[in-house]
Design goal:
alpha+beta, BirA Bifunctional Protein, domain 2, Rossmann fold, 2 domains, binds adenosine monophosphate
């Protein structure tokens, strides 16, 4: 029968890779706790309406990338393409925004029907960090510092920070007409994608990667030149705070981000080490979103880290990690011994926390079981045969060095194991 394969763009993370993922997730949890952020675990599926309202109708995500389906009741649901909308929905639903700020984070899978390529998948993972209810540039700076600390903890170097300000909704609207006017006067130079975006989401034309458009886009009006005093003040204060904290950055007037809800500060952390998919983390302010989803007017800011890309960076120049073999492999031969094996193993696990012990499973003779013990790469084989059962003993055979074997009285087994293997390692 033909074997079934995983869905295109959705990949397994094999056991050899999970230690890097865990190292990243542990570091993230630690850093986030250090800034007072709390974990939220929203569902993976939401009502489609949530993303239409938040991410925006004219965006690539909503137009062509969502996994949307009708449930058995005919309701339109969507596998979340991002997580900010869910965090905001949850905060409104549980009334967490009444008079106080919320610092939240979440790690989990997101789904976008994109063209799969290296660093771009249809199921990918994000660390999502959101600060709701804080209006000032100080919280934007905090998020950027938090990101920088995470890169430091992971030993990642060479991540560049780019920032921009998109101003308020009113400024964006006024700027949009100016931009459309400019782009329309260069319509014949636009590629097919940009032509389409000109009609749906003109700001996105600015971050086209097409080198043919570069000159024309560089001469386009820039939103940063049209900010009002409040937006400009906010952006200048943010830059001063970053400089005071020793964070390097570049103002990139063409940084616009692909989701509609951004207002004011936007930023991206970028690497040159991953080829075309160099954006490792992106975020910014979304001061209007809480209200658009039905909550009270609430300023907010956040970012999302693409974990596949961070893992790829962590793996550069790093030998595949050793997931750590078992300390011991317990094999029982004969009916009575097989019946006793699990209870003995449980006693050992109770007595020696951290012990990695495999109990042989399946039929077979002594030879097959020893072969399995060898393959498991355990340090010790614990052999429980008919003789050992009769004498209340157990044989311990070293699987590494000389293959030395000793027979231990059952009551002394815990002590012997504690001496022979390094359970903490
Ligand atoms: P966004 O939610 O589009 O602002 O993306 C935030 C970050 O998520 C990006 O900087 C990427 O690192 C990562 N990302 C977004 N889309 C994908 C994808 N399809 N595959 C892998 N990572 C992604």
């Amino acid at each position: 029968m033909k074997a079934i394969q995983a869905i295109r763009g959705m990949k397994d993370i094999p056991p050899a890779e999970t230690p890097v993922w865990r190292r990243l997730e542990d570091a993230a949890r630690d850093v986030l706790a250090g800034y007072g952020y709390h974990e939220l675990r929203p569902p993976i599926v939401e009502k489609t309406e949530l993303f239409r309202r938040s991410v925006g109708e004219g965006t690539d995500i909503v137009e062509k990338e969502m996994y949307t389906f009708a449930d058995r009741n005919g309701e339109s649901l969507t596998l979340r393409p991002e997580c900010t909308a869910s965090c905001v929905r949850a905060a409104i639903e549980h009334s967490w925004l009444r008079g106080r700020g919320q610092r939240l984070w979440h790690i989990g899978p997101m789904f976008r029907y994109e063209k799969p390529q290296k660093g771009r998948y249809r199921q990918f993972h994000q660390l999502d960090v959101e600060a709701l209810g804080f209006p000032g540039p100080d919280i934007d700076a905090e998020l950027i510092l938090l990101g920088a600390r995470l890169w430091g903890r992971l030993g990642l170097q060479g991540l560049r920070l780019e920032i921009n300000s998109l101003g308020s909704r009113e400024i964006q609207q006024a700027y949009r007409s100016r931009l459309v006017e400019y782009l329309s006067s260069h319509a014949e130079e636009l590629d097919e994608d940009s032509q389409r975006r000109l009609g749906t989401n003109p700001l996105r034309v600015l971050d086209s990667k097409n080198p043919r458009l570069r000159g024309m886009l560089e001469a386009a009006p820039q939103i940063i030149d049209h900010l009002d005093d409040q937006s400009r003040g906010h952006f200048e204060q943010l830059q001063a705070m970053l400089s005071a904290s020793g964070i390097g950055f570049r103002v990139n007037p063409r940084l616009v981000r692909g989701l509609d809800y951004y207002t004011g500060t936007v930023f991206e952390w970028i690497t040159d080490d991953l080829g075309a998919q160099g954006a490792v983390c992106g975020g910014g302010r979304y001061d209007g979103l809480v209200e658009e989803i039905g909550g009270p007017p609430t300023p907010a800011t956040g970012f999302a880290v693409g974990l596949e890309r961070v893992v790829a960076l962590m793996q550069i120049g790093e030998a595949p990690s050793d997931p750590g073999g078992p300390h011991a492999y317990l094999l029982a031969v004969g009916e009575a011994a097989e019946r006793a094996a699990h209870s003995l193993a449980e006693q050992l696990r109770d007595a020696l926390p951290g012990l990695r012990l495999i109990v042989d499973a399946g039929p077979g003779n002594f030879k097959r079981k020893m072969k399995s013990a060898d393959r498991s790469q355990a340090e010790l084989a614990l052999i429980l045969g008919e003789d050992e059962m009769r004498d209340q003993r157990i044989s311990c055979k070293s699987m590494r060095d000389t293959g030395s074997q000793q027979t231990v009285v059952r009551s002394e087994l815990i002590e012997t194991l504690a001496e022979r293997i390094n359970v903490g390692a």
